[in-house]
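User: Show me a protein chain along with its predicted structure.
Assistant: Here is one chain, sequence first, then structure tokens.
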Amino acid sequence: MKDSKVKISLNQELNEMFKIKFNNFKNTFGREPNDNDPVFYEFINRQTEHNNKIIRTMRNSEVVEEQIIYAFYITGRILTKGNIKYLSKDEINEWSESINEYNNLLEEPIEANKYTNLLKIVTTINNFLKDLCESHFRDIDTVFSVFINNNTNQETWCNKYEINNFMDYVIFCIYKTKKDIETLEMLIKEGLVENAFATVRFIFETYINLAGFRMDKDLFKEKILPLAGVEKGTHCRLSKNKVKDLNIGKVYDISVKIKDLATKSGNNNIAFYNILYSNLSQYIHVDIFSTKKYFSEPDPFYDIDECFIVGIFSLFFCLKILEEVIELNIEGQLLLDIKYFINKLKSSLILSLRTLNEYEMTPIYSLMLYDLE
């Protein structure tokens, strides 16, 4: 039987890339790859995932035009001066037609054909959400940093920080959320939506803890201060949920359920818990209900990017955290600045949630809008 393998020449850049891939394979498995081993093994032989990662990389570069990305999405290739001589006339025509199709769809009014123009609708929403998330993530970082700087001794707090009262706990929660937002920004950029949802649960839990303990300071003294005492050496941990005061011998039960705090804190928090918490938790635990999410790939042109939806959720709960902050004993310019930003962020969130709810009505969008309005 005739060997069907074809030899092709590679330029220097491709040669270097394949050498790196082969060396990485050998370092991992201790052998050279054979004919049956995939070269780009990190994509688990899923072409859609592979293409989506390439598309996200091109978009993150902010260099490649969207019409070029769309043509790659349709044809599976990128036409360049270097490779055009290797393509057939039909392949070149397909590329050109894809470019024209994209430009025509963007130029056509949405009202002209809502079905065909789904691409323009989704593109418009994604661009809007992307800009909103990026700008307000920067704002959130600034507001959190200003609050921390105004309420701590910068010379000692990083290495010697202790929780002695509720304000200390608030500062810890703000700093933790600041770190969570930094993580979230990286996850969104890389399109790691499942991990991003898990991070939103961290932010949600922080908000519920703040809201619940602010409503019941005695509960804070019973559940949090004994744990802080373990750090300082005045208490010892007897078990997961039991802490003993070494001075007076009192034993504290420090267990607390997030649902109880959500109920105690009032507002719409128990509704948020019932609608959102279990869905977010499936990305924390090994939950088979998340299987489809992990193994499915969104369409990069016809689906709303869920990473931006995660961004909206996180901004919403950052807003709720700031609403807790202004209930504390802060005053003067800091209070005015935080209130100004809260109103600014609230307006942006209402607009984004109305947009998402119009595109696809869901209980969580409706609840968030109800809470904000």
